[in-house]
Amino acid sequence: MPRPPQGYGRERQRGIRRFRRRIVIAAEGTDSEPEYFDLFRGGDTVVQVTCIRGGGAPRQVLRQMRDYLGQNPLGPEDQAWLVTDRDAWTDEQLRDLHAWTTKDPRHHFALSNPKFEYWLLLHFEDGNGIAHAREVDERLRRHLPRFDKHISERDFTEARITEAVARAERRDRPPTTTWPQAVGTTVYRIIKAIRSGQPEPT
Q1: Is residue 8 part of a domain?
Q2: Element (H or E) spanning 38, and its range?
Q3: Secondary structure of the chain: what % helix, strand, coil (to 5)?
Q4: Exposed/middle/buried for 29, CB within 10 Å: 0-12, 13-18, 19+?
C-alpha cells in the first residue's frame, strides 16, 4: 500500500473514513509519546490510533486507560496498549500493568528500558553500549541536536520507523513475555500491530 515518503502524513482522503480497528494507547510521558503516536493518525490506513494524554506513574497510566475504556469500550478487533518506561519504577508497579494484559487478549503492555527515548534512538542507530538513561539522551542528541522531548515528523520517516522496528525486534530475542529486563524496548510491537492489523504478543 503506497505511503508518503516522510512519516505518516495527516492528510485525509475525501469522504467518510471507515476504520476497521482502533488502537488506544495510554502512555507515561506527556510530550514525546503522544506526539510520536500522533504520526500514525493520518494517511491511508484502516486503523484509528488514539493516544490518551495524561501521563504519570504506571498505575496512573492504567487508571487513565480503564477510565477511557469505561466510556469507549473496545470492539472485538480493537487493541489497548499501556506504554511506560523502566526508569525507577518497582517490579510491583509494572506487574500491575502486566497483570491487566492477562485478563483480555486485546490488552497489551509495551515498555522501554531505560526510557522511551531509547525507542527513538533506534530510529538512527543500533543503540548498543547504553548503560544509563543519560546516555540515551546524549546519543539521541548526536542525531537530533535540538531534541527537546517534542517530535518532528521530518525526523521520523517511514524508513526510519521500519529500521527501528527491526533493531528493537532483533534485541528482543527471545521475545519477552513481561517487559525488557535489560536495555531494550517492546514499543515495536505497537508499530507492527498498526501496520499489519494483527494482534501482537504480550
Answers
A1: no
A2: helix 32-38
A3: 35, 15, 50
A4: buried
Domains contained in the chain, number? 1
Cα end-to-end span (Å), the chain: 27
144-190 pLDDT, tens per residue? 999 998 999 999 999 999 999 999 999 999 999 889 989 999 999 99
**Rounded CA separation 156/117 (Å):** 13
**Cα separation, 67 vs 61, whole angstroms:** 10
Residue 84 structural domain: 21-176+183-196
The 10 Å Cβ neighbour count of residue 177 is: 8
Strand ranges (DSSP E) for the chain?
21-27, 47-52, 79-85, 107-113, 184-185
Would you state the torsion angle of the CA atoms of residues 118, 58, 37, 126, taken in this order, to the nearest 10 degrees? 10
Domain-embedded: residue 53? yes
Instruction: Estimate to the nearest angstrom the gap between the alpha carbon of 129 and the chain centroid.
Output: 22
Answer yes or no: is 14 within a domain: no
Give the β-pairing of 47-52 and 79-85. Answer: unpaired
CA 5 to chain centre: 21
Residues 6+ apart with CB under 8 A from 8: 39, 40, 41, 42, 43, 45, 158
In a domain, 190, yes or no: yes
Residue 53 confidence (pLDDT): 87
